[in-house]
Amino acid sequence: MFNKKLFGPVSFYKNALSIAIPIMLQALIQSMVSLIDNFMVSGLGDISMSGVNVSGQVLFVFLVYLNTICMAGGIFMTQFFGAKNPAGMKQAFRFKLVMGLLSFIPYTLVCLVFPRQVLSLMLIKNTQAGVILDQAEQYMNIMFLVGIPMTLSICIASSLRDMGKVKVPLIVTAVATLTNTVFNYLLIYGNFSFPRLEVRGAAYATVIARFVELAIFIVIYIKSKPDFAIKVFDFFKIDKKLFKEILKKGSLVLFCEMVWVMSETITTALYNGRGGADVVSGMASSFAIANLVFVAFGGIYSATGVILGKTLGEGKLERARSEKTWLLSGSAVFGIFMAFLGFATTLIIPYVFGKLSPEAIRICRSMVILMSFFMPVWVYMNAQQAVARSGGDTAMGAYTDAMLTIVVMIPMVFIIAIFTDAGPVTMYLGVKILDFIKVIVFHFWLKRERWLKNLAKHSLE
Question: By the 8 A CB rule, do 283 and 367 touch?
């Protein structure tokens, strides 16, 4: 029998899974896009695949920023939804749009003006940096086109999820994925009399899919008119006080996530310096496989945020305290399940990436096994972060996660890189051990219950 203090009723977990599973399926479909891209581009060889994946790091930073902005706005969106406050929901949506669209300027500069200079930072000491950059630059010059459609789509999709409407984004993502896959097949290799564009074909396929995705979201937005919907002419009707409040909370979330992105970018650059295209493609392909189980993070995070945010917005603080325990316990069990699923994904590596070099495949398999071991820790950490942020406690991530990363993790990876001959897999293990310490620190932080707040009650009064 489950301990009733640790685990909630079955109905509670059914509700949590009804939110988490569609989000995980959406993330899985998006991961399949990445996997299919990698599979198709891998047929062009290690160098082409390395070029696409190095340039993908810029898109990764852009995506993390957009998702972080939507997380910040989502903290308030879910609580206003629970408080039945459409005016507040509209303000949260405006925040997402304004802050998201501002990011298009630096993204475009990197894609069109300084692509080679920026991407070269990812290939310091790589023995094949020049030819990899040639491929990456071709890809980046096209990918700037996804900036605006991606921003608008993510803002709408995240807001629907904040309301618990998770099936619509799932369906739209499925359509976009099918579109991307079809055009990858047509444009990378020139099938059915289409031009053979290779890495440029992969970029054009992504751009087409993103515009199709946005078109569908706009139709849904206009027809369904969700509570957060605003008219074009009302775009600048911003509640400055609330905007500053969201920005204040969001800045800490953004700081935490950007530190994480910085650490991932730095460590990836150091891994890439441990060899040639085989190391770059091997590491990249491992993350393409691991993303199939990383979908657990978004599902657990969103379900926790929606459930607790709604409960807090309704002012049911004691109920929220119980739900926090139930969600963390459930995430621990779910993380173990996802670890075994991660081990199983190693079976598909020879079939998906069989055209890569033997060394690239070896690195890929070793990394997937290693990341699977960490899945229980990572799933639990995501749930802890979601609990804190659901009540506006964004300081936990900024003061613990980010500071440990800056003070300990980044210096550690430089020490390993400079003073040892460790390969990329060993380096990855060395820095990720720190995550066990983060879980313990988060545990004691959450006990202080700074997250147990009804934000909607004090806003728009």
Answer: yes
Q: Which residues contact 163 (CB under 8 A, 6 or more apart)?
A: 77, 78, 81, 89, 226, 227, 228
Q: Which residues contact 182 (CB under 8 A, 6 or more apart)?
A: 205
Q: Is the dihedral of CA 190, 192, 195, 201 positive or negative?
A: negative
Predicted local distance difference test score (pLDDT) of residue 460: 47
Tell me the C-alpha to C-alpha distance, in Å, between residue 244 and each of 132, 200, 230.
43, 41, 19
Which tokens hold the place of 274? 């441990």
DSSP letter at 9 equals -
pLDDT band at 34 (very low <50, low <70, confident <90, very high): low
Instruction: Count CB neighbours of 318 within 10 A.
Output: 9
Mean pLDDT of the chain: 85
Task: Return d(Cα 55, Cα 138) in angstroms, integer.
Answer: 9
User: What is the pLDDT at residue 332?
Assistant: 92
Residue 31: CB atoms within 10 A of its CB come to 21
Question: In this structure, what token pair is assigned to residue 258?
Answer: 């950007």
Query: Which DSSP symbol is given to 453?
Result: -
Lowest-confidence range among 177-186, 255-264, 324-333?
A: 255-264
Question: 282 is written with which tokens?
Answer: 């091997």
Q: How many whole angstroms separate alpha carbon 262 and alpha carbon 256?
A: 10
Q: Are the C-beta atoms of 163 and 90 separated by less than 8 Å?
A: no
The pTM for the full model equals 0.73
Does the structure show a pLDDT above 90 at 28?
no
> Which of 32-41, 215-224, 281-290 bottoms out in mean pLDDT, i.e. has the lowest?
32-41
Rounded to 5°, angle at Cα 195 from 193 and 200 = 145
Separation between Cα atoms, residue 420 and residue 430, nearest integer Å = 12
Token digits for 18?
């009804």
Name residue 418's amino acid. Answer: I
Inform me whether the pLDDT recorded for 420 exceeds 70.
yes
Q: Which two tokens stand for residue 165?
A: 């409407």
Q: Is 232 exposed, middle or buried (0-12, 13-18, 19+ CB in 10 A)?
A: exposed
- E strand or H helix that includes residue 271: helix 240-272
pLDDT at 156: 94
CB proximity list for 42: less than 8 A, separation 6 or greater = 49, 281, 285, 352, 353, 355, 356
Residue 133: Cβ within 10 Å count: 23
